[in-house]
What does this fold into?
Amino acid sequence: MDAMTLYKPGNSFFHRCDSRIKLFILAVISVLSFLFYNPIIPMVLFVVTLSLNLVSTGSYTVKNFMFKMILVMMVFLIILHGFVNPGGKTPALFFGHELRIPYFGAYTIEGFYLALVFWFRMSTVILAAMLYITTTSPSEMMSGLQKLGVPFKFCFMLSMSLQLIPVSTREASVIASAQRARGLPEKTVADKFKGLLPMFVPLVVSSLDRMETLSMALESRAFGYSSHPTDLSEIRIRKADRAILTGGIVLLVLCIIIRIRYGQLNWVNTVKSWGDVWFPKAGGAKII
It folds into this structure.
């Protein structure tokens, strides 16, 4: 992967797709993730989206810092919702015993159910966004957004913001290594929090210096003089893109019809054990 961008060059099917079709796929996956209120459908979408990422970009997906954030978010949500979600009623049993925390009460099955729903939803959207960003070059991204009517300056701002993420991450790693070489203590969690300030100040200063250099470079090239500059590469919708577009529209309409006809397919009020989270009882999927 180029160190200056999140884009990972390749020749996979998604790399060859039109950037506008990739945006459409991102929108469809996001809508489907929030259309139903149970963990099974978002989980299926999560597995499908993760598989598409692995096929398109290989191991880069699981090595990316965003994937690590997804795992941290999973632990945080499962713990938080299990103890403090107001919808929790049924205490969960761990080897026959309830898990309780003072002032918070017992860990609940309903809280675990809701934590899975929220986590799978957000993780699926993040993975879908990663699929779009890592398989779309900055030039293709800007061209696709411009063809959708997005102003050029906004397209450039979005593209530059995404390209600066790995740059800032690399600089933060270099600054942290330099601070450790100077004897920065990291024995306890408190020491690590205290060490954020010595790292934050030089990172902000270097970012401001980079922005100043970038602004002078843009001004010297008459940035913004033309609202429709010439594209470096022309993007076109192929037959495969049209097939994806048609299939996505059909799937989205079908799921919306199911949502209107059968409701959210939510069985949180019927869960009484761990198995009920994944296998609802007969008549348990309420139309809510």
